[in-house]
Amino acid sequence: MGAELRFSGFIAPYMAFGDLVAALAFALAVVSLPMLMDRRVDIITAIMTSLWVVRENPLPMLVLAILIAMLGFAGRRPGSSPWRSSSPCWDMPPSMPTVIWWELG
Fold first, then answer.
1. How high does pLDDT run on average in the chain?
2. Angstrom distance (rounded) from CA 28 to CA 44
3. Cα(16)–Cα(57) distance, rounded to whole angstroms?
4. Residue 28 within a domain
5. pLDDT digits (tens, 9 = 90+) for 31-69
6. Cα distances (angstroms) measured from residue 45 to each of 39, 52, 55, 96
7. Cα distance between residue 49 and residue 38, in whole Å
8. Is the Cβ–Cβ distance between 50 and 28 less than 8 Å?
9. Is residue 87 a contact partner of residue 78, using CB atoms and an 8 Å limit?
């Protein structure tokens, strides 16, 4: 029996826990961070407002969370990004060394 089969029972709980942490982070930050930047409120008020907005508007918040996740996933996979041609470094062969901008001066 391979290692994939012996440890496959851990994948679902880890993914569920990660989803729970991501949902909590999203619910806490989706309104509170912009609110803290825009208004003079304390952090507790901002967090409670964010949780209230997520509770009262679950479908738009779910759509926003899915959109953020999809864009984040597309950003991690540059080869499958629709904006591939706009970045010349993605078209470089893997054998070419990476040049850091401060080395150019």
1. 78
2. 10
3. 23
4. yes
5. 999 999 999 999 999 999 999 999 999 999 999 999 998
6. 11, 10, 15, 51
7. 14
8. yes
9. yes
Tokens of 101: 């901008």
Residue type, 90: W
Q: Determine, yes or no, domain membership for 70.
A: yes
CA distance 98 to 104: 11
Instruction: Specify the pTM.
Output: 0.62
Q: How many domains does the chain have?
A: 1
Q: How many CA atoms lie within 13 A of 89 on its CB side?
A: 6
Mapped to the 3 state alphabet, what secondary structure does 6-42 carry? Answer: HCHHHHHHHHHHHHHHHHHHHHHHCCHHHHHHHCCCC
Count of alpha carbons within 13 angstroms of residue 95, beta-carbon side: 0
* Gap between the Cα atoms of 13 and 20, Å rounded: 10
Identify whether 57 is part of a domain: yes
Question: Which residue reads 């899915």 in tokens?
Answer: 66
Instruction: Please compute the mean of the pLDDT values over residues 22-28 and round it to a whole number.
Output: 95
Name the one residue in this structure whose structure tokens are 């479908």.
59
